[in-house]
Design goal:
1455 residues; alpha+beta; five-stranded mixed β-sheet; four-stranded antiparallel β-sheet; 39 helices; 57 strands
């Protein structure tokens, strides 16, 4: 499990999303997971998760009974109620009695087996934990918000509803309603029962109670109930009387720098909590996140006390949703609160001070990075629009974090610390923003004025490149900030002038490298730590490495075929120089590749190099790679994270998996290695959590085989099904109220309850303040329910709907005509006086209605008054019509434009006001239609006013490329540049969406044949590559056509489709040498027959019936017959030209992970070069290439295939005779050629030695025992049966009796003194490296604390190996080795290696010690091994056989 972690934020707007048991275990519902947090210590710690719900957890409750405190219950919006065992983190039982989202659940404080839940449709269900039974009730057809079980009467349950109603029900009587508590005017957020039974009067003044009627509250049996509502009041209710006895109004607490508007109710959540043992004290939340302790025995301002007043910053900064309390065994009383500010706080109820704060995360953890300057300072980029900076090394507060939100306003998707300036943190967001924060100040961030169009995925600090690198030394910055975003652009920002424009580095790349074609969109970049080169990953899977500052292209890595997601350079401190140039890359496929770029960086080529083979492959993940990090404490150790929800640690050089972490419940997005702890790694991802974990404590080594992804997909599919189910249920009919008889409520009954809830909600709110007695109110309510149910069955009366009067256009004057009779008569007198003499002004003031009966000016004044009335009422359409009537058409159109209420009718009237008005109105209507997503109609209106180009831009901006292209081709000339631009943009969109064929057609239409071929090739299958090669050849792109044809032919060759591979290459004469290579590969594959699967197709000249004795003769004959290549060929077919062309083809370093078919291709490449050297008479190069061909098969572990190749090359066993048909004796005088010949001769004799032993062996029990450290070609021999070669049958062993024939080869070639010394020195170096690694690991674990038993057991083999090696020297037991002594020995051994001849290391022989042991075994029963040969083998064993396994095996031969 993890060490420290930041969990997901508790769910909002849930009154009981958290609860704590008596042992101090807190359960918090966050998303669909319940996090378990231990709060009993001085600091909290996440100890586990309860995973299983398919939707948000709405409520959670522990069983508070002795012996059962580990059992808990949770509810969810998925409609389920689940019982859990928190100790074992397992599901005990699941109930699916609800058909709607469950709003609340509570475990009864009195009955240890009863839990009660309520859903949004008003159904209450009792769950019996011991039997698994359920009983359903339907007390009210309203939406339940909360409920609480009484701690004094097991059958009494209080239910709070959305409309402000509180209902007390008796679950023992089938959910009978005992009381309806009316008084709140809005949602009931929380309910809490008093911990003390009875209703003793706790108020000190008579006016504090509400209409007691002269009777003391303590006279009646019952219990107090507290409720918190959105109406900003807390009410105390008497359950015996069914009425409120006290009302508490929240105090308006003015925060520093902020004000609270008491009229705003949307941002308030009023939670109430009644702590155990405190019957006169009540805790409630307040407006801005404060917690208030109410003393119910006091009055006025003395009644409440604020939490956290002893120091600043203790309170929550936003509203509190849930509060729970616990009394621990040490008598401490703690209160836990969750809030919208995404923090969980623990309070001491004695002092009302905050004990600790646990920050939580409200979104995906997109980025995490440790500061290179401030040790242990961890920055997090989270999807809740905030940055967290965590001081992970603090000892007082383990969760010392600061949150930064100013100026962000979007998901934080990328982070990067400044490499030298402490506290300078750059960030990128989901909306394309780039900024820099100073985390040690309270200033807002600096924001770059250059925004990306899409999400920023990568940020990197690096040296400035032109144009920012120009200028005086003091004027240019030491570092520039580079950002890469989803649109594929990399921008260079000047950190000292973020207000200036950022530079796109694509222009510099094009100019420096003279690139004319379109660059692939960039997806990632990473500067080498020394700032000399930068690696840029692209969307097509290519990685380009550029040299600073001019960004000259050094090499292009074309290994990935999907989008590059992450790149990481190996650190440059404290490691071997050969590791400084390692670049790890991860893409959207599951394989991690490590590339060695040292040759290209240290010796930059004149033209860019294309690399197609990696230095190392790391295979194991089952989904795309998202991030990675090199360990700063180890050499070549890498951690990667993936969409398969795991993190994998690799030992890169041996391609070995170290451990696999599976603590997350969703895919991972970021990872970083702790800069101070070699064993600690931090990861974050989709599950909203950040987790710290240790490499040494993981039980798994490799990722799971796809199971995690299957589980994730099932979870993702669950929510849509539930939503569809809810929609279907809500649409169901039925009006009969459900029976509350304890049976399950059916879907139709629940739908009926939902249908009634809307009307009843309004009636209940309206009746809360009415002075109707309870009995009368209940009777009236019953009648109203029955009437509503009957009415809902009937169809609406259409006649009544038709009689509804339309809204008046002149409501003010109309209302004036409904005054008393005296006023109407006075209007007649006033109007007559106006017409015949001066008097009042009609149409305004008290005489506004008289404007209708006076002149036009009076009418206009009346219209103005009516317009003001319509504006206040929000009837702007009426204002528009009034202006039309008055002749102000332009004003009417302007108002409709401002309000966004233009329509086709108004637009049709616009030409009456002139062309300019019509044009402006049409443009405004088009903008309005765009907001309504009616883009085609908007473009048509723009065309109507001859705005063709804006219409095209509108269609393009909303991705309607097909329609835009059709419009341009129909209305504009064919050579208009807009058409090409549209084709190019559409092609880019299609390419990103994976529609490569359609994208290629767009590129072809735009005249970009190069891009068309490249986009088709991105599919990377054989048919796509073949089509892309043909397209490039037809378009005149010769170099691209050759590259694609080679890729296609290579894939066909791996698939053993030799005929198709030759056909692909035959279309281009310049690929003749590659056809020769495939010819040699086909002949070699036919001869070896190492692949059990038959080939797809082959040529007649590769049939088995035409085999000469030597493979070289056969290759030469076929070349001359089929391809016309011989010693006499000239021009492009000459051997010299062909060999020169073949030198550019790379051959990677042999590795055991390469498949056999690939190995045969690489071996045949050297075979092709050897035959070309033979034709040229270059014997030295011939022998070197033959040695490479045989060594490839040997070094990749294919022992028997290598033996068969040696037999085909040299049937007589003599490497100086390579051909019988063209007899020639090879005489080597040059040093490297002679060394290659000797090495090849030794390899041939080595295979013949084993063949001699296996052929004449009678009983072989086991092969020669060799330790893994002494392994060489003999390991391959022991595994010969696995490779499909010839091996001794099981049960045969080294010969005990019998005789052997004479050796038909010179075995002394195998006993080379120089090679024995070289191999012994190399073994010593490996042994010292293992000791050093074991010493460093033991030291790091000793610093981390005591080892677990599993770790000690895992370290056992290392200790035993070290002890066995030390047993050969008695002084080592007396004087333990130190780091200094081992380093000295390492230097001595490396000096010995350096003194050896280079040819010995370039062309190694088979293991000399192994050959000595085999010869000595043969000599026991065969006179073929001479005495001098035996004596030489013994001497070499004494001198160089130092390994424990060799010493054990040589005891029977050496005295």
């Amino acid at each position: 499990m993890h060490e420290r972690s930041l969990p997901a934020s508790p769910n909002w707007y849930c009154s009981r999303c958290s609860d704590v048991n008596s042992s101090g275990l807190l359960g918090v519902g966050a998303k669909n997971i319940i996090y378990l947090i231990d709060v009993s210590a001085s600091s909290c710690r996440v100890v586990g998760e309860l995973v299983g719900h398919k939707d948000f957890v709405s409520s959670f409750s522990f069983c508070q009974h002795a012996g059962q405190g580990h059992v808990c219950v949770s509810s969810s919006n998925d409609g389920s109620v689940r019982f859990w065992d928190s100790d074992n983190k397992v599901l005990l039982r699941e109930h699916a009695a609800h058909q709607s989202p469950v709003a609340a659940v509570h475990w009864s404080p009195l009955d240890k087996n009863l839990a009660v839940s309520g859903d949004e449709k008003g159904v209450v269900v009792c769950h019996w934990h011991n039997t698994g039974d359920t009983a359903s009730f339907f007390p009210e057809p309203r939406t339940i918000f909360c409920l609480s079980c009484s701690p004094h009467t097991w059958s009494s349950v209080a239910v709070g509803y959305k409309d402000g109603m509180i209902v007390l029900i008796d679950v023992s009587k089938k959910g009978e309603v005992t009381h309806r508590l009316r008084g709140h005017e809005d949602e009931i957020h929380s309910l809490a029962w008093s911990p003390q039974a009875g209703e003793d009067a706790f108020y000190s003044r008579q006016e504090d109670s509400e209409a007691n009627g002269g009777v003391s509250a303590g006279d009646a049996a019952g219990c107090y109930l507290a409720s918190g509502s959105k109406d900003q009041t807390v009410r105390i209710w008497s359950s015996a009387k069914g009425k409120a006895v006290m009302t508490l109004k929240l105090p308006y607490l003015k925060k520093r720098g902020s004000t609270v508007d008491p009229g705003v109710k949307e941002r308030l959540w009023l939670h109430v909590h009644w702590p155990k043992g405190r019957p006169t004290q009540l805790v409630s939340s307040c407006f801005g996140g404060e917690l208030v302790m109410w003393d119910l025995t006091r009055t006025g301002k003395q009644r409440w006390t604020l939490f956290g007043t002893s120091s600043e910053g203790q309170n929550h900064s936003r509203i509190v949703f849930s509060v729970s309390s616990v009394r621990l065994q040490d008598d401490r009383e703690l209160l836990i609160s969750t809030s919208m500010d995404r923090e969980i706080k623990c309070w001491d109820l004695a002092s009302l001070d905050c004990c600790w704060t646990l920050p939580t995360l409200g979104g995906f953890v997109y980025a995490l990075t440790f500061s290179p300057v401030g040790a242990g300072c961890l920055a997090l980029g989270v999807g809740d629009n905030m940055i967290r900076v965590w001081n992970t090394l603090t000892t007082q507060n383990q969760y010392d974090t600061r949150s930064f939100w100013q100026g962000i306003k979007s998901k934080v998707t990328a982070l990067a610390w400044h490499p030298q300036k402490e506290g300078s943190l750059s960030f990128g967001t989901d909306d394309g923003k780039v900024g820099i924060y100073d985390v040690f100040s309270n200033r807002p961030p600096q924001i770059s004025s250059s925004y990306h169009r899409k999400t920023v995925y990568t940020l990197a600090w690096g040296p400035p490149v032109p144009p920012m690198s120009f200028g005086a030394a003091g004027g240019k910055p030491a570092y520039s900030l580079y950002s890469c975003a989803g649109e594929g652009v990399i921008l260079q920002h000047d950190p000292s002038r973020l207000s200036g424009d950022a530079a796109d580095i694509d222009r510099l790349i094009r100019d420096t490298n003279s690139i004319k074609h379109k660059l692939s969109p960039h997806t990632d970049l990473r500067w080498k730590p020394d700032g000399k080169v930068v690696a840029i990953g692209n969307e097509d899977g290519c990685i380009d490495v550029y040299e600073a500052p001019a960004l000259k292209l050094l090499c292009s890595i074309q290994q990935h075929h999907k989008m590059i997601n992450t790149l990481r350079w190996h650190h440059g401190h404290g490691s071997s120089p050969e590791l400084h140039c390692l670049l790890a890359s991860g893409s959207s496929n599951a394989t991690v590749y490590v590339h060695d770029l040292r040759p290209a960086i240290e010796n930059p080529p004149e033209s860019p190099v294309v690399m197609t083979e990696p230095f190392r492959r790391l295979c194991g993940h089952t989904s795309k790679i998202t991030s990675m990090a090199w360990s700063p404490h180890h050499e070549a150790r890498l951690v990667t994270v993936s969409y398969d929800a795991t993190a994998q640690v690799w030992d890169v050089l041996p391609e070995a998996a170290v451990c696999n972490y599976r603590g997350h419940s969703g895919y991972l997005l970021c990872v970083d290695w702790s800069p101070v702890d070699p064993d600690a790694i931090w990861t974050g991802g989709k599950d909203f959590t950040l987790q710290e974990w240790r490499v040494s404590k993981q039980e798994f080594k490799k990722p799971p085989k796809g199971k995690k992804m299957v589980d994730l997909k099932e979870k993702m599919k669950a929510n849509p099904k539930q939503k569809r189910k809810n929609k279907k249920a809500s649409a169901a009919g039925g009006a009969t109220p459900p029976e509350t008889n304890g049976e399950h409520v059916t879907g139709g009954e629940k739908a009926a309850g939902q249908e009634l809830s809307g009307e009843e909600e309004e009636d209940e709110v309206g009746s809360t303040n009415s002075p109707v007695p309870p009995s009368v109110s209940a009777a009236f309510e019953t009648q109203r329910k029955s009437f509503t149910a009957v009415k809902s069955k009937d169809k609406p009366d259409l006649a009544l709907l038709k009689k509804k009067k339309p809204r008046s256009m002149l409501p003010i004057s109309t209302s004036m005509d409904h005054r008393p009779k005296e006023d109407l008569l006075q209007d007649c007198v006033t109007l007559a006086s106006v017409r015949h003499s001066s008097g009042c002004v009609p149409g305004q003031g008290e005489h506004v209605h008289l404007g209708l009966f006076s002149d036009r000016q009076a009418l206009y004044r009346m219209f103005e008054a009516e317009e003001e009335g319509h504006v206040e009422a929000g009837h702007f359409d009426s204002v528009v019509y009034l202006r039309l009537w008055s002749g102000d058409l332009q004003g009417a159109l302007q108002l409709a434009t401002e309000r966004g209420e233009l329509n086709d009718h108004l637009l049709s009237l616009a030409p009456m006001a002139g062309f300019e008005v019509w044009s402006r109105t049409a443009e405004a209507f088009a903008r309005q239609l765009c907001l309504q997503e009616q883009y085609l109609k908007a473009a048509s209106h723009l065309l109507s006013i001859n705005r063709l180009y804006p219409a095209v831009d509108l269609l393009r901006s909303h991705k309607l490329y097909r329609e835009a292209i059709a419009l341009v081709k129909a209305r504009l000339p064919t050579d208009d540049p807009l058409l090409k631009e549209l084709y190019t943009c559409w092609a880019g969109v299609l390419e990103r969406d994976g529609h490569f064929s359609s994208a290629a057609k767009c590129y072809l239409a735009a005249g970009a044949s190069f891009d068309a071929a490249k986009v088709i090739a991105r599919k990377n299958d054989i048919s796509s590559l073949r089509t892309a090669a043909s397209l490039a050849r037809l378009s005149g792109e010769a170099s691209l056509a050759q590259s694609l044809a080679l890729r296609c032919a290579k894939d066909l060759a791996v698939a053993q489709d030799w005929t198709a591979a030759q056909d692909v290459l035959s279309s281009q004469d310049s690929l003749l040498v590659h056809r020769l290579h495939l010819c040699a590969a086909e002949l070699l594959a036919a001869e070896l027959l190492a692949d059990p699967q038959p080939c797809v197709s082959s040529h007649p000249w590769a049939s088995p019936g035409r085999r000469p004795r030597c493979i070289l003769d056969r290759v030469r004959d076929v070349w001359e017959e089929q391809f016309g290549v011989s010693q006499t060929s000239a021009g492009q077919r000459s051997a010299a030209a062909l060999r020169q062309e073949l030198k550019s083809v790379e051959s990677p370093t042999p590795s055991a992970n390469i498949p056999l078919r690939q190995v045969q291709l690489y071996s045949s490449l050297h075979l092709t070069r050897a035959v070309l050297s033979w034709l040229l008479g270059d014997d030295g190069q011939l022998m070197k290439e033959l040695w490479q061909a045989a060594a490839w098969l040997r070094d990749t572990g294919h022992f028997c295939v290598s033996a068969e190749l040696c037999r085909l090359l040299f049937p007589d066993g003599d490497v100086s005779v390579c051909s019988r048909k063209h007899p020639k004796t090879l005489d080597h005088t040059e040093g490297e050629a002679k060394a290659a010949a000797d090495g090849l001769q030794a390899l041939v004799h080595y295979h013949r030695l084993y063949q001699h032993w296996w052929t004449h062996s009678a009983q072989i029990r086991s092969p020669v025992p060799l330790s893994p450290a002494d392994g060489g070609p003999g390991d391959g021999a022991q595994d010969g049966a696995l490779n499909g070669g010839v091996s001794a049958p099981e049960g045969s062993a080294c010969p005990a009796t019998g005789s052997f024939g004479d050796l038909d080869f010179d075995a002394s070639v195998l006993l080379s003194e120089h090679h024995a010394a070289c191999q012994a020195t190399q073994r010593s170096v490996r042994e010292i490296q293992e000791r050093l690694a074991a010493m460093v690991l033991q030291h790091s674990r000793a610093q981390g604390g005591q080892l677990h038993p599993g770790e000690e057991e895992a370290d056992g083999p290392v200790v035993q190996t070290s002890t066995a090696s030390e047993s050969s020297d008695s002084q080592r037991l007396e004087e333990p080795e130190t780091l200094l002594s081992l380093s000295t020995k390492m230097s001595q051994q490396q000096k010995l290696l350096a003194d050896l001849p280079d040819t010995v290391k370039m062309f190694p022989h088979p293991d000399v010690v192994e050959c000595c042991l085999v010869l000595l075994h043969l000599s026991k029963s065969s006179p073929a091994v001479s005495e001098s040969l035996r004596q030489r083998a013994k001497d070499l064993l004494r001198e160089h056989g130092t390994g424990p396994a060799v010493l054990k095996a040589s005891r029977q031969f050496l005295p």
